[in-house]
Amino acid sequence: MLRFIFIFFFSFFLFCANAENKEKIIENLKNIKNFNFRFEQNINGKIENGNCTIEYPKKIFCEYARSNNKVLVSNSKSLVVKTRSSYYRYPLEKTPLNLILDKNFLINKIISIDERIVDNNLINFTIDENDYKLSLFFDTKSFDLVGWQNTDAYQNFNITYISSISKNRVISKNLFKLPSPN
Questions:
Q1: What is the pLDDT of residue 28?
Q2: Helices 2-30, 103-112: crossing angle, 10 deg rounding
Q3: Contact call for residues 49 and 65 (beta carbons, < 8 A)
Q4: What is the mean pLDDT of the chain?
Q5: What pLDDT sits at residue 18?
């Protein structure tokens, strides 16, 4: 009997803690209009880093460090990846970033899926949507998004870590203007 009571209270405590984490992550997301961060991205073992700004809904601007002037930009409809020697334009809806950049989608998914605690300092949600499997990671103290992993359209495994996050800054609306091919 004592064992049953212990299991009940332990399960109840875990349920309440998980619900509280979800509530705090959702509240945090609701209060974010935009955020800047440093990133480190590992795509099939190739590591790149730089700085990004995300503005909801569905806008992103990233400058890669030590690259050949690589930028990644979304204006909420298209995604452009441009370097000195190449220019790629994709419909945003055909990329996993379409999900990551949609705050309302994230909130609705987080409400309906179970979380997993990783190493006592990360809260993980895994989303299966439109042939994408996307794992999101949130910090257990700040409840900020601190990274994600997914497989892209070319079946590349992508892990992105983010740090040095600053929220709701004044940003130029021209930041998300798609660069021209030349």
A1: 96
A2: 170
A3: yes
A4: 88
A5: 54
What pTM did the predictor assign? 0.85
Biggest CA-to-CA distance, the chain: 74
Of the candidates 31, 79, 30, 33, the one whose C-alpha atom is nearest the C-alpha of residue 53 is: 33
**C-alpha distances in angstroms, 96 versus 4, 135, 136, 143, 173?**
44, 11, 12, 22, 23
Domains of the chain, start order: 2-176 (2.50.20.10)
Q: Which amino acid is at 180?
A: S
3-state secondary structure 106-119: HHHHHHHCCCEEEC
Residues 41 and 47: beta-carbon distance below 8 Å? yes
Task: Tell me what pLDDT residue 15 has.
Answer: 41
pLDDT tens column, 5-33: 333 333 333 443 457 999 999 999 999 99
Question: Which DSSP string corresponds to 23-73?
Answer: HHHHHHHHT-SEEEEEEEEEETTEEEEEEEEEETTTEEEEEETTSSS-EEE
CA distance 95 to 74: 11
Q: Nearest CA to 22 among 126, 146, 113, 104? A: 113
C-alpha count within 13 angstroms, C-beta hemisphere, residue 64: 17
Please report the pLDDT score of residue 14 as a whole number: 40
